[in-house]
Amino acid sequence: MKSNCLNIAYSFDDGYAQHAAVSIVSLLENNKDIDKINVHIITNSLNRKNASHIEEIINRYDRNIQYHDLNAMTSRMKISTGFNRSAYGRIFLDSLTDIDRIIYIDSDTVIDGSLKELMTLDMTDYVVAGVQDTVNPYYVINIGLDHSYRYINDGGVIILNLDLWRKMNITSKCIDFIYKFNGNPPHNDQGTINAVCAEHIKILPAKYNVMPPHFKFTSKQIMSLFRMRSYYNQEELDNAVRNPIVIHYTDEFFNRPWFKNCSHPLKELYLYYLAMTPWRECKLKFKEITRNCKIQNWVHKNCPFFIYKLMIRFIEIKHRIKK
């Protein structure tokens, strides 16, 4: 890959076009110093209106756009999955044969800083790089790992070393893993990538994927909650929250920023970049948070930490019994 050429991939459909547009405009607004940016869009359901809006944004910054058909890319996977097939698109990026490194970005993100450092990050011995996730221990154990592994979130931002990925035949190994679970592997695409790439994962600084738990818990609390042996120290977490590069708006605690009742501390960033898109006039809707999220929020707000921890343990046991 050329030293000043950034290849970015998104995978989304019409339902997430607005949010992908916000992420793309934030990416391009904060990376103007990069000579060349290629935006690769993987989709099987993007109408002409939404596509033209996305193209309008990318053309505004004089960047390149390429579409890739999701069904064609994932045709090697001869099985139906219990999860949106678009989430598995990142596993098949090895089909972009003229690219050796690509950064995959989830659509529910805002890029509020430069990704330039990731372009030259040493990935010699790693097939993927990402930010360590806060995930129920059940998922880690159920994909065959133990708590010594630093399980990454494959959303937000991940880097794929496609050159090594192809040499190690990672896509075929991922497909085999998905078949092993009859199309429903634990934690879907994320569990698949963590299981298959476990020995070749590089951990990125937390600032490249700031998630809701980073605002709610200390480093020690996160390690205790999720039985981790290694995690970011408190200084690293504090720096990520104060100076985030990528904000990942997952459902936990706050709801999503495109709903009027979202309480995320960085909700205004999403709205700021939304105003730069053709969706700037859209009205925010109300969405009731889920029952589980309500319980989670109530326990966190009203109970000592050890009670919240007991709740996480209960969820873990419930998963195990169900299995």
Question: What are the salient characteristics of this protein?
Answer:
323 residues; alpha/beta; Spore Coat Polysaccharide Biosynthesis Protein SpsA, Chain A; eight-stranded mixed sheet; 38% helix; 15% strand; globular
Task: Write structural notes for this entry.
This protein is α/β, with parallel strands linked by helices and 323 residues long. It has a single domain, classed as Spore Coat Polysaccharide Biosynthesis Protein SpsA, Chain A. Helices cover 38% and strands 15% of the residues. The protein is built from 14 helices and ten strands. The strands form two sheets. Strands 1, 2, 3, 4, 6, 7, 8 and 9 form an eight-stranded mixed sheet that branches. A two-stranded antiparallel sheet has the order 5-10. Strand 2 (36-43), helix 2 (48-60) and strand 3 (64-69) form a beta-alpha-beta unit. The longest helix has 18 residues, at 305-322.
